[in-house]
From TrEMBL:
InterPro entries in the cross-refs: DinI-like_sf, DNA_damage-inducible_DinI-like
Protein name, per record: Bacteriophage sos operon Tum protein
The species this protein was found in: Klebsiella pneumoniae subsp. pneumoniae (strain HS11286)
Gene3D superfamilies: DinI-like (3.30.910.10)
Amino acid sequence: MKKGSVTGVEVIGFDNKSDREALDGIIQEVWEDESWR
C-alpha cells in the first residue's frame, strides 16, 4: 500500500475485511475530529 493512498480513502486493495474496517474507522474518526485542521 502506498503512503498517499490513505488520504484518498483508497482501501480497496485490502483483502482482509477486518483490516479494511479498522482503517475505515480510523479515517472516519480523523474526518469527524476537526481539531487537526
